[in-house]
Amino acid sequence: MTLAPEAPQAPPAPDRVRFQVSLHNFTGPFDLLLGLISRHQLDVTEVALSRVTDDFIAYTAALGDDADLEETTGFLVVAATLLDLKAARLLPQAEVEDEEDLALLEARDVLFARLLQYRAFQQVAALFRELEASARLRYPRAVTLEPRFAELLPPVQLGVDAAGFAELAAAVFRPKPPPTVGLDHLHASTVSVPEQVAILSGRLREQGVATFAELVADCEHGIEVVGRFLAVLEMYRARDVALDQPEAFAELRVRWAPGGDAGSAGLVDEVDEEDA
Amino acid sequence: MTDPLEEVEEALVSDAELLAALEAVLLVVDTPAPTDQLADVLGQPIPRVQEALEGLAAEYTERGRGMELRATGEGWRLYSRDRFAPYVERFVLDGQRTRLTRAALETLAVVAYRQPVTRSRVAAVRGVNVDGVMRTLAARGLIIEAGTDVGGGTLYRTTEMFLERLGLDSLDDLPPIAPLLPDVDDIDE
Amino acid sequence: MTDPLEEVEEALVSDAELLAALEAVLLVVDTPAPTDQLADVLGQPIPRVQEALEGLAAEYTERGRGMELRATGEGWRLYSRDRFAPYVERFVLDGQRTRLTRAALETLAVVAYRQPVTRSRVAAVRGVNVDGVMRTLAARGLIIEAGTDVGGGTLYRTTEMFLERLGLDSLDDLPPIAPLLPDVDDIDE
């Protein structure tokens, strides 16, 4: 991988042009971030992110009109996460781990996990390159028969009639079923978290408080229970409910308590993304 | 990074290496290859390669090898030596060569329903290398070259003999496969 | 009238003639030929032919010839010698075989280890849109559609050609990715 010859520790402005050129070496935000981490000789598993944040932001700023909307968005999402993390490190550490701290930790872990994953596939890709280079060194002889021998062959038989040939052609063009264990028999229903949120909001608004067991009593499939649990987490995050669980594995009580600004819907977004 | 080809080309300063390299290339030559093409592939002057080819042909004959290297009007190719033709014939007739293999039939099906079509397109649909099978189909008279596409790839179509073998008068009589396969056109877009 | 084959078979009492006859037959072999088939065609005992094949293979290697005689599970076949691959490649591919880009290789890696997998899932791992790359890989026959997932997304898997290109016999031969990647499957569930 080639990088701009100098690290942008110098003031970023004069380097803008060079950034723009370098950008095309990277095939996405993870690629860029990994590149920066390795340039600073940092281990991806260490808390390296605040040190590369400035570089990353600079690259992202230089994306300009060159990139399409989706590409820019990808970079911006990672840049925003990085800024968040860096800001958290600059501020005095609070004693209490409030929700925002947790969210930051979570964001960092997800980013690390994705980076690790991306790096693993990069290594596999390098291995593929080696395999490819060494694979086809011997080419088998496979040439047409000399006419004098070909003439000896009896007329070729297809062994099928026109209808059979069409059947065979259809089989060739039909997408092959993936080599997996079929899951169709397990469940057919898909569960949407927003839908579950709506159901639970309705009930809790009426009842005021309910145990989780009561809330899932009417679920037919395991996946609905999961969906409903995610919905509870989502409502907690949106500060629509309060949760009460005296100790681990104890009964979970969900109380309708619309309080904070019901804004963030990050969880829902993630779930939707997976469905897309 | 240095070009691996440059490294080995230097190795061809030895005549023995040049002969061996020629032999390696000749082994995969299907339609006779002209001297200049071989010289180009080996990165050597034409006269030197011409001389090497003649030397190799003479060597095969002197040593009584099972192969012959002969030049026709179009170029050079390896052939089985005449003297051993009876064995070769027996081998050729011995195999199950009257019926097409499943792989060949499937490849033929792709050509039939997508013609005119390039080899790489057929390979993409089949998901395997089809070079050998396509050559066999061509050799058996079931498919034939039909010009080139915009990208310069050779196009293939089925022949009259193919229709005969299926008992059809024209390609229009090929049973449609769309009913068997609703989304056929989406598959390799 | 005597059978011409009987006459020549007598000639095969000489080992040199047997080797040459084998060579002549191997020249038309286009899928690996088992020893017993070759013995049958030459009218010679299997052990003698087995020995001759091994002798021929050794001779090619000792003399540094351009071809190799190799036995796979199914039988014997002639190959170009690995050392000359750059020339053979240049001849066979005529510059058609382009190297895969890094983006293509990375995408292929994700498909290989996550198959069957949707395009959006691959994009999530790579952090970029992969539509164009996936199209290229499909057009080259390295990946192919494989039905749809429960959400209706098209699934992709790798092909035989992918294995062929990497020189692997089956997907089981792919190196394990787990050591590189703890808990990879938890990440984007």
Automatic annotation (TrEMBL), chains B, C:
Its domain of life reads: Bacteria
rRNA-binding among keywords: no
Q: Does the keyword Ion transport apply?
A: no
Q: Which Pfam families match?
A: SMC_ScpB (PF04079)
Q: Which InterPro entries match?
A: ScpB_csome_segregation, WH-like_DNA-bd_sf, WH_DNA-bd_sf
**Keyword annotations:** Cell cycle, Cell division, Chromosome partition, Cytoplasm
**A biological process from GO:** cell division
Q: What PANTHER family has UniProt attached to this entry?
A: SEGREGATION AND CONDENSATION PROTEIN B
User: What is the protein's given name?
Assistant: Segregation and condensation protein B
**Origin species:** uncultured Actinomycetospora sp
